[in-house]
User: Fold this.
Amino acid sequence: MQKLDEEILSVQNQVETNKNQQASKAVFTHLHLKKLHEQVVVITGASSGIGLATARMAAARGAKVVAAARNEDALKQLVDELRSKGCQAVYVVADVGIEEDVMEIADTAEREFGGFDTWVNNAAVSIYGNAMDVKIADMRHMFETNFWGVVYGTRIAVKHFKDRGVPGALINIGSLFGDRGTVVQSTYASAKFALHGWTESIRMELEKEKAPVSVTLIHPGRIDTPYNEHAVSYLEKQPAHVGMMYTPEVVAEAILFAAEHPKRDIFVGGQAKFLATFGRLAPRLMDKWIQLTMYRTQHDDRPSKPREESALYDPGYGMHERGTNSGWVRDKSLYVEATKRPVATALALAGIGASIWAMARGKNK
Assistant:
């Protein structure tokens, strides 16, 4: 009799466990992320460019910030700046290409703030040069940062959100060159292709198991940051964006929107969407367009800095959001705004379509 009672109790416990698991999965079918002022946000590559702009914007909106990068002087200056404004922030000196360093970022967030709610994989560095000229050692080291750093951050963030049981946001910063290959930055494009593939794959796996993780891929176009100055250059002339680009604050806006609202993808800039769309629809035509435009718009007329002065192996200079690029810098992206307000955008487009149709009818009468 006692054995029968134990078996009945075991079955009841198993049924209860199954119910709890199903209820848990149901909760995560529609993820509800915390408001930004309630969040702890981890940002890699936070000492300059997009990461720096995102850290400042997140802190200004009430989030607690864990800033990570290799440049300790810049990180200390950033955290002192944020704290002087009444914000809560800590920093971690970390090379994201080293898994133990990435683990320390998470440990610091846990120790200082009890965990984190959004993890932004932003750290990256580029290499400018023809593919056949770039040293294999440089390629491998760049992949450690641009791809493996994202893998390490992803695995740590996902485990944290699963263990905690409260939905969180994983935000990976891709590139327009992760959707379409390019010349001169072939190694960078390859690493971003890998990042995009990784992000799409883990997103599907996590959705299948109804894990409490929102996975967003940001697709920035050309952004006015020190990215080019930090890059390794095999060119005679200094890498630079020449033409239309966007401020890093535009990308930061997209990142922080994704921190509160689950989104699959956010394109920052029409150029990013253009390359992704037409690269699929007319790949051969896009080959010719890139060959025609990208050689002359990825450098200016200054002599290139020596490769030894790049940020591939050592930290680059910090506390600069903007770079030394040449062209028209826009402070707003229509694609980001459309992503943030899809209903209003759809209604506006419908209104425009209706107006055009009405005018066409009027002309035909």
About this structure: Residues 124 and 146 are 5 Å apart (CA to CA). The chain has one domain: 28-332.
